[in-house]
Structure formats: C-alpha cells, structure tokens
Amino acid sequence: MTSTIPAQAVIMAGGSGTRLWPLSRAGYPKQFLVLSGNQSLFQQAAQRMAELAEPGIDFAPPLIVGNEEHRFMVLDQLRELKQTPASVLLEPLGRNTAPALTLAALQALAGGQDPVLVVTPADQTVTDAAAYTSALRRAIRQAAAGDIVILGIRPDRPETGFGYIHSHPGNEGIRSVLAFVEKPDLATAERYLAEGGYCWNSGMFVLRASRWMEALRRFRPDIAAATEAAFKAGTQDDAFVRPDAALFGQVPSESIDYAVMEHCPGSDIPLRMVELDAGWSDLGAWDAVWQVADKDADGNAQRGDALITDSRNTLVHATSRLVSAVGLDNVVVVETPDAVLVADRSKSQDVKKIVQQLGQQQRGEHTLHRKVHRPWGWYDSIDMGPRFQVKRILVKPGASLSLQMHHHRAEHWIVVSGTAEVQRGDEVLLLSENQSTYIPLGAVHRLSNPGKVPLEIIEVQSGSYLGEDDIVRFQDTYGRAKSGNT
User: Fold this and answer.
1) 0.85 surpassed by pTM
2) In the chain, what is the straight-line distance between the N-terminal and C-terminal CA atoms, in Å?
C-alpha cells in the first residue's frame, strides 16, 4: 500500500514588482493585482496550489511568506477564495528568497511533520492548468524520496531576461541538473534554444523541509543560523508569525539559487528538474504582460476603456478613464488615476529606472496609489489643494478605523451609503445616508461601520498640514503604530 505524501504550499508574496509601475507600487505590488481574468496573481497561485491535492498527496493549508505591510491584503484575498492559510510569515524587511524559504521550512517542521514544500512565487501565471498540475505532482513524488526538484520552463524564444538550467534526460521526465547559467546575451540564448537541454529557471522548487535545512546548513550555515535565531525569538499572533526584527536584519540577503541550488550539482544532494510546458510567464515587465494578453489582428492588446487605431504590437492598459492610441508601434501605455507610463515595449525592463527616480525624489507615486487599501477598507484622495483634501472612504461591514486625533486638521464627514457610527469625544452618533458631522481639530474620534453593507463617506479635510502621518492613535484593532497612516 502506497503511503500518503504530506505536502504544503509555500507562496512567496514579498516582491515589489517595480517593472510593472505605475500599476504595481510598493504599497500594492503586482502579486495582488488583477492583470488577467478576475483573480490577482497571488490568488491564481493559491488556487493552483489548492488543486494539487490528489489521492496519495495530502496538502496542508499553505504557508505564505510576505511583507508586514501587506498582511491584511493576503488574508482578504485568500478569504475571497474561501482559503485559510496555515500561517503568514511576515518579513520585517526583505532578505531575498533563501531566508524567506528558511522561515517557511522552520514553521513547517515546528508542526512535527516534514512535508514536501511546493515553493512558488506569487506573481506568475500559466495558461495550461492541467499541464501545470501534472508537472507539479510528478515533482512532489520525486521530492518525497529526498531529491530537490526545480521546475524548468521549456523555452519558446531566445530570452535574455531569465537564468537557464542545463540538464540531461532522465527517467519519466525527471532530468538531472548539470548547471545553472546566468542570464545570457542574445547570441548565447539562441544557441541554448538550438542545442536543447536548456530551460528557463522558473523560481519554483519542490523539496522536503528537512532537505532544505540540511542543504542550507551545509552551503550557507550563516543564513541558516541567523534565520533560525530570528525565528526562535519571534512572536505569533493568530495566523501571523513574526521573526524578531533586529535579528532578522542581521540575516544575509541571498536567493535560493545562489545560497543552495548552484552548489548541488556535483554534490551528494540530488538536484532534479521537471520540465514545465504550461504557458508560463513571470509577468516581470509590461512586455511580458503583452506577450500573454489576447491581441487583435495587428498584435494590439488592451484592458479597460481603450481605443486603438493604426497601431501595431501595442499594449494599452486603462484603469480610470478613456485612453486612445493612434499610430503607435511596439509601445506600452499604462494609465492610473495619478500617473501615466508611455514606453517602448522593448525597453519595458527599464521602467524600474523611473521607480528609482521616484524613490530618490521621495514622491508618493513610488509607494502608493491614489486609492489606498487599508485593513478596514480603502480611501481615495479625489481632490486636494493647499489647505484642503477630499477623500472617498469605504469601511467594510463590522470594521472600524483607529481611535485617533489630528493636531493640524479638522474633518467634515458626509455619509453617501450605509450606516456610520461616529465616536467624537464622549459622544457616539449614528449617521445614515445624506447625514453629516464635523470633527474639530484635536478631537479624539473614531469611524466605524456597524452595518451589514459597506459604508461609504466623503471626507473633507481642512487645515495647515494634511499629511497621513498627522495621526495619533489611542486604540487600534490592527496592531499598528501609535502614529502613522490612517
């Protein structure tokens, strides 16, 4: 009788996706965006993982590794799928993928089992779900025997933006890895394609948790020891697992490939590859989004309210208004309410240079959209001037903002829909549609939604300073700092 293989997905959700700006921002990165269909890339990854279970493979709820700032976004998007994670491991700062996987392996082993970890980035897409599921199940069965398995993407073009895996054939589609190869120039990539035996490195790995720890301790004992110290000194709050921030800051930053995988060929740790031919894309830049999008006869792709004429091989992505394109060839146009990108499609990798400039200039467009998501809902800054700002605010049913006050601004609130419970000093008010109230400067206040439907209000702020850091919190449901964002 064949024993059941314990398995667990590890979804790496901590990336920033700078090359997909202006849609992807530090505060709302690409893995949480809906770029195709009606699910975000993170949700697509979680859904693919959930479908890997079959008789003989027992899948535990997933482990999510992500950024502290995105923790409620992770839970909200999983809740839409009716999924509950085993844990959400929150990195206090980015340390690349090797420490991230180590946190997940330590958490998996803490449960007393040694599951096969199916490690995937949260920002990839595939078009052939059946081929994907078949390849991953084959990899799980191979990893259960102690091998490390990497998923290699069968190349369909001489791509210079990916690293490559060199392998030779084995039994039942399981290939032995000979070497990892850095991103090549075009001539080398063309040679790889002609010779065969080379696949793109997908960043997906399948291995037992104990095997990862064994390999890491051998090849990078410094990363293993530092991450384990931060993990042991950490805290847990419901689903959230937080390694110690100071100790995690001392962990060397390194990728899974550099830390372990490149050392395995030639060692006694077996490294295998399963080839994946499933319409895979990492959507690493706008050119990749164009590659996987539906196109018209002239190669043009569009999303949102867009009109394209006399153009070829062009992508137009509109989010808040009509965008028209005339006479464009190999161009990307991306519109959001507060920023527009126009780029040569072949230069879309260089969008990160714009993001670097935004960061250097400390512009808000580097981090946040005009519409900002919060654990309690969202706000959209629809207008502003020297001494005023107007926001649309939506509060989820049963949610509330922190009990807070402002030193430099007063606020007027008008209820558009739903019911608002307003705490203002010692008063508690219930407001319904078309009713309003005033929050004087310095007044302690809180906005809550006691109803069963979303609450939407218009907020008009006025004062000498309107920055989001003019908040003093007295109580907060979401464990945020005493001062900071709404």
Assistant:
1) yes
2) 57
